[in-house]
Amino acid sequence: MRSHRYWRVVGLGVLLAILIWLPAWAGPGEERSTRELRVCADPNNLPFSNERREGFENKIAELIARELNATVRYTWWAQRRGFIRNTLRAKECDVVMGVPSDFELVLPTKPYYRSTYVFLYRKDRGFDFRTLDDPILRQIKIGVHLIGDDYTNPPPAHALAGRQIISNVVGYTIYGDYRQENPPARIIEAVAAGDLDVAIIWGPLAGYFAKQQSVAMQIVAVPPDPALPRLPFVFDIALGVRKGEAAFKGELEEILHRKQAEIQTILQEYGVPLLGAGMPSNSPG
User: Fold this and answer.
1) Does 249 reside within a domain?
2) Cβ(217)–Cβ(73) under 8 Å?
3) What's the pLDDT at 33?
4) 11 and 109 together in one domain
5) Which of 23, 109, 111, 159 has the highest count of CB atoms within 10 angstroms of its CB?
6) Which residue in 139, 143, 105, 103 sits closest to 121, CA to CA?
7) What confidence tens digit (pLDDT) does each residue in 134-183 have?
């Protein structure tokens, strides 16, 4: 599926954390831990992760480490093409913390959150978006994230192109200028500054950075696209382990289930739009 190629390079994601078993030495008089939680993550991609451990995936990794009686150690790797190949598949990593629950390159756990693409705009604009067929979308400046070619672009780009809404669409590369902090945030800042009228982007990005703008922002879930019923806008997000490691997957699932309330609290603190927790679901089930 085209949308899965997007997740391989974005992580809107969707950022990646990895657990590997290694000995960790405790202090004098303490038991030695037999585990170390080695986390591979992007050092510059909030709200998911950064080198200062400020992202929600950093916090969830710390929670999991506590439950495993492990210590956390990071391997930093910018998310680009080949991330899975060079980390999880190369056995530098054991678990990826932000993948769609049907991602074919990994063995996914049961999902630990569900989010959606959203319309993001300034409240003072007075918009009232309900669908992708709203006539005003043909008249205003729209921002979307792009990857680089038609087949790896995210769902909003495909949905707008399918409606011949092209000339008023501005693409922002998801990679951005990596010398700046959190490159994907530029599109949210452009909406706040008035350079864009609306952005259609992955909800966790919108929810986190909207709260940091100097103007009030509005977030509205994008409904399913009747013109492209196979194009998803809602994703269940899971952890992913290497194929064949079912026992480790089961152990992680037990922690996710037992600590569900704490994980949901972390996600809410970061402004992640959670379907079933304040936003209407756009997909059955």
Assistant:
1) yes
2) no
3) 55
4) yes
5) 109
6) 143
7) 999 999 999 999 986 655 789 999 999 999 999 999 999 988 888 899 99
- Judged against a pLDDT cut of 80, whether residue 26 lies above it is answered with no
Q: Give the SS3 label for residue 135.
A: helix
Number of folded domains in the chain?
2
Query: In terms of residue numbers, what domain contains 72?
Result: 2-113+234-269
Q: How far lies 230's CA from each of 50, 151, 247, in Å? A: 33, 14, 32
* Cβ neighbours around 145 below 10 Å, total: 26
pLDDT tens-digit map of 204-244: 999 999 999 999 999 999 998 888 888 999 999 999 888 99
- Phi, psi dihedral angles at 204 (to 5 degrees): -60, -35
In a domain, 226, yes or no: no
pTM, rounded to two decimals: 0.83
Instruction: Kindly state whether residue 71 falls inside one of the protein's structural domains.
Output: yes
